[in-house]
Amino acid sequence: MTLPPSRSDLKFLVFGAGAIGTYIGGSLVLAGYQVVFVEQPKMVEELRQKGLRLDLTIDERRNTKDVSIIEPRSFVIEPSLEEALKYGPFDAAIFALKSFDTVSAMEGLKPFAEKLPPLLCLSNGVDNEPAIAAALGQNKVVYGTVTTAIGRRGAGSIVLEKLRGVGVAAGHPLSEKLVEALDNAYLKCRLYPDALSMKWSKMLTNLVANPTSAILNLTAAQVFADKRLYKIEINMLKECLTVMKAMNLEVTDLPGTPVKALAFATTLPLWLSKPFLSKAAGSGRGAKMPSFHIDLYSGRPQSEIEFLHGAVAREGAKRGVPTPVNKILTETLMALTRKEIPLEDYAGKPEKLLTKLRY
After folding, report:
1. 225 belongs to a structural domain
2. 210 and 189 share a domain?
């Protein structure tokens, strides 16, 4: 198989056809860029037969009321990196795996380091880019973030739920070209001067109503309705903001996401801040439970809390900043994830968590 003709010299390698991979990679295909996906063998044949389905109808700029069907002939998908690299050389790769998969993924990529292009990392958390740099070299990673909310309907099938945008950090030779390409693909991309401020600001938004929901088996609305649990949310965010201040990082607004307002809300009286944080916790999520809850109750043996709240606790420990809320929430959820304690020990029992946090 050969790559289809391209309107651009840029050629992209996309790791995975999950929600973000399908959205970003599919949008690049629709914009005329050459894209090669690497996916698990069990999904490859299916996507080679049916192609990709992108429901982007809420994006008025695309001027479409129909689901975008990307025919299999418009892209390439391979079951191994070795096969995918035969279509190279590539200009950039899109990397948006779960944080707990990054280290193992890097072990698989190391043998191909010389042939790999720089990876634009869109994964949540702040540990992924350093892991990529350690495995492949500092020049092989571009810091990025995505705030757009994407729903996955099935293999290679997504729906755009809330259009916000993509952030790319300046400082890499490829940064500006990536911004231009992603913007050409209607992904609302912006360039950010400070990579760490961008990544930590995104992580701040990921903290809200995530672990408490999973640990207690409550919706975000139920968590926010309890004044004592809501105070946990505020103190959790305050700890992260204190760590960021110790790192000399600035809270930065992200595409479609007023992070500065979120940070400001933590300084207000609880009754005044609650409406804003409630909206922030539910915006773009709809009726879905937070990601930590979904992972825990699907039996997944890992949790991204280690790379979000856990990262806050680790950085706080390095800098002498107390982070008891983030630390205890991380330890408790990881114990549940590892089945060291049964789910019912905390499900629907806020008193038990509040006692552990000494509230």
Report:
1. yes
2. no
